[in-house]
Amino acid sequence: MTSAAQQAGQSARHLGGAPVIRMIDVHKWYGEFHVLRDINLDVARGERIVICGPSGSGKSTLIRCINRLEEYQKGRIIVGDVELTNNIKRIDEVRREVGMVFQHFNLFPHLTILENCTLAPIWVRKIPKKEAEATAMRYLERVKIPEQAHKYPGQLSGGQQQRVAIARSLCMNPKIMLFDEPTSALDPEMVKEVLDTMVSLAMEGMTMLVVTHEMGFARQVADRVIFMDQGQIVEMNTPTEFFSNPQHERTKLFLGQILH
Amino acid sequence: MTTSGKTASAAYLRTTVAPPERPPPLTSGPLAWLRENLLSSPLNVALTLAGLYIVYVLVPPAVRFLLVDAVWTGEDRNACLVSAAGQPVGACWAFVASRLRYFVYGAYPDGQLWRVNLVFALCAAGIVWLLWTRAPRKDLGAIFFFGLFPVAAVVLLYGWPAIGLPHVHTSLWGGVVVTLVVAFAGIVVSLPFGVLLALGRRSRLPLVRLVSVTFIEFWRGVPLITVLIMANTMLPLFLPGNMSPDKLLRPLVGVALFASAYMAEVVRGGLQAIPKGQFEGAASLGLNYWQTTRLVVLPQALRIVIPGIVNTFIGLFKDTSLVSIVGIFDLMRTIEVSLADPRWATPVTAASGYAFAAIFYFVCCFGMSRYSIAMEKRLATGHKRQETDR
C-alpha cells in the first residue's frame, strides 16, 4: 500500500462509518497508455473531496470510473454495497445512486428543463409523473431557477444550465455526487452562482467528489484535497495543510502556477 | 472610440447613450433585395438575363401546350387530331379523362371501387390529422396512420370474405392505387426497420453489427431493378414448392428492404451527430440502452435527418415506377398500356399521358418536400441546440 492509500484509510476512519466508495489498487490503460496507476481511495459518507492536478493527470478519468463511464482494467471499485463489474445491471444500480455533473452540462436539448429533471425519475425510478414534477420543481427552486422550468436548455445561460444539471442529478436522490470540472466551461460571471449551489449542497452533508481548479471552493468546503499527476495520487491532505504546507515538489510547482 | 483632448488618453468613460438608428437607405426593402441578389455585379447581371431568357424559352410553350391549346373534352382520337380541331393541338386531356378510371384504379372491379375510395379517404384523413398543426392527439394520429391504417387498407383492398368483402386479386389492382400501396409500404417498413439497422450497425455486439452491415451493404450494392427481377423470378425458387408469394407482394418486399438499407444510412448519420455527452448524461442518470436510445438519442437524431429521410421517401416514391418492369400495373404501366389503344392514337397522346404522370409525381413529391420543411421549422422553434455540445 502506498502512503497515499494509508492516508486515505486514516481519513475515512477519522470521519467514522464504513466508506461509501472504496477504490482498491485501480489501474486503467488507454491502449498502451497507463492513465490511472495504483489508485487507492476510501471516501467516507458525507465527505467532500476536491481533486486537482494538471490536465491529462487522470482526475476526470478517476471520478468517471466511479460510475463506470470509464472501464478500468485492474483493481476494484466498490460503491455502497455494490462492486462494479461488467454486469450492466450492477452498473445501472450504481449509476442510480451516483449523480454526476459534467463540464458541458450534457442536458438534453430536445426536452424542457422540467422534462430534463423528470426523465430519469419517471423511467428509472418509476415515480409517477405528477410526483416527479413536484420533486423537480422543488430542486429547481433550490438552484433558484423555477421560472425557467418550461424553457429549453438552449435558451438558458451556461450558469443556469449547469444549475439545471445539478438539479437534474439531485432529482434522482443520489447518495454521492461527482462533479467533473463543473465551472470550467462557464463565463467568469457565471462561476459563482454554480459554486454557491455546490457549497450549499456540501453544507447539507452530500458526499461529493469534485474535480475543479476553484481553489477557493476547495478551501471553503473540502475535507480533503487530492493532487494528481501522471495518473497517480501524488498528495492528499486537509485543505489547510495542502495549501499552506505542500510536501511534494510537483504539488508545490502546481500551486505556484495556479495561485498567483 | 475617440478621446477628447490633444493627447490620447488611456481613460475613457461613456457619458451618453448612443440611441439605435435606422439603417441607411437602400440597404433593406425590395429594391435593395433586387440590387443585392440580381444585379450586384456584371456577372450577376448576365446570369439574371440568362435566367430570364431560359424562362422565356421554356415557360410560354409549356403553358401553351398544357393549358391554352389543350383539348379538354372528346370521345376519341378525332378530338385531338390537328385537322379535326382546326388549330395546333396541345395536350390531349380528353384521353387522360377517358382513361382516368384505369389510371387510378387499374382493373379493380367496378362494384368494389368504394373500397378503394374508402382507403383514399382514410389515407387523406390520416395525412390531415398529422399535417394540421393544431389537430388534437397527434400521437393517436400517428398510431392510426402507421398502425391501423395499413391493416385496414390491406383488409379493404384485398378483401376478407368473412366480413363480406370478396377477394380482389392483386393482379386486378393497378394505377395510382398500386403506386401508393408500394410507396406507402416502403415508407412504413423502411423507417422503423432502417432505425433498427442503424442502431445495429453501431451496436457493441459484433454479431449484430455484422448482420446489420452485411444487410445494408448488400441492398445498397444491388440496383433496384435487379432486386425487383430477383424478387419476381428467383424468390419462388428459393421458397418451398407450395409457397408462391403474391405477385405484388414480391416487389413490395424488395422495395421495402431496399429502402430500409438507404434509410439505415440516413439515420446513422443522425446518430453520429449526437454528442458523446448525451450518452454519458443519460448513463449517469441510470437510463439503460433502450431508454437512452428511445428518449434521448432518437428524438434528436431523427430531427437532424428529416431532410435525408424525406429525400429517401421521395426517391422511393419515384422508384416505385420501376415495378412496372416486372409486370406490376402501377401508374406508369397503366399509362403505357393505354397508349397502345388505337382509338386514342394521336401525335400528342404519349406526351399527354407522360405529362399526367409527371404532374402526379411532382405534386406528391413536392408536397412531401414542403411538409418536411414545415416540420423542420416547427421542431426548430422554441429551442436551439446547445452551443457547447460538440
Automatic annotation (TrEMBL), chain A:
Outline the extent of the ABC transporter domain.
21-255
Asked if the keyword ATP-binding belongs to this entry, the reply reads yes
> InterPro entries from the entry?
AAA+_ATPase, ABC_ATPase_HisP-typ, ABC_transporter-like_ATP-bd, ABC_transporter-like_CS, MetN_ABC_transporter-like, P-loop_NTPase
Q: What is its EC number?
A: 3.6.3.-
EC class name:
hydrolase
Q: Name one GO molecular function term.
A: hydrolase activity
Q: Its family? A: Belongs to the ABC transporter superfamily.
Protein's recorded name: General L-amino acid transport system ATP-binding protein
**Organism classification, top ranks?**
Bacteria, Pseudomonadati, Pseudomonadota, Alphaproteobacteria, Hyphomicrobiales
TrEMBL record, chain B:
Q: Which UniProt keywords apply?
A: Cell membrane, Membrane, Transmembrane, Transmembrane helix, Transport
Ranges for the ABC transmembrane type-1 domain?
A: 176-367
Put simply, this protein is called General L-amino acid transport system permease protein
Which NCBIfam families does this chain map to? HEQRo_perm_3TM
Keyword field contains Transferase: no
The regions listed as transmembrane in this protein's record are 45-67, 79-96, 116-133, 140-160, 172-197, 218-239, 251-271, 304-329, 349-368
Q: What is the lineage of its organism?
A: Bacteria, Pseudomonadati, Pseudomonadota, Alphaproteobacteria, Hyphomicrobiales
Look up and give the organism this protein is from: Pseudochelatococcus lubricantis
Q: Which family does it belong to?
A: Belongs to the binding-protein-dependent transport system permease family. HisMQ subfamily.
Q: How does it sit in the membrane?
A: Multi-pass membrane protein
